Amino acid sequence: MQHLITAVHPEVEELQGTQFTRYATRAIIIRDDKILMLYTARYDDYSLPGGGIDEGEDPVDALIREVEEETGARNVRDVEPYGIYEEYRPWYKPDYDIMHMVSYCYRCTIDAKLGQTRYEDYEAKNGMEPVWISIHDAIAHNEHVLAHSEKKGMSVERETYLLKRLLDEREDVLS
Length: 175
Description:
Largest sheet: 5 strands, mixed
Helix content: 25-40%
Structural class: alpha+beta
Shape: globular
């Protein structure tokens, strides 16, 4: 799979100290001129559906599981690699200094009708919900969060980068 970028959070001055790696998946699901995103009320941002890959789990199986859980999607299919977004973030717990996040991003298709979501407790408490939104609106919203919000999550930079890259590549489809 193509490596898209390695991003280093501004609070990570050096890639030294103790670190752990977390592997995750992200789904790019486009229908007509909308993209399926997760709106999270706690952070007031939009993110791509996806999440952690369990130990020993195939990344595509993890993608399908996460998309079904977070969006209620049915019949996840036509899964194709898009690229890897790699990042280094500060870790705020005493066991490590840095988290190395590797996100495997895939394009895929789902059935038109979404079913019931199956959120983990923290996702439900954060006010997560699936929404079909214009990519332009999602970018503008996330950019506003980046510029003005003190409660923003650390993933908003990744999500905004990926949305802008998608828009640059598919302007004719997403305009």
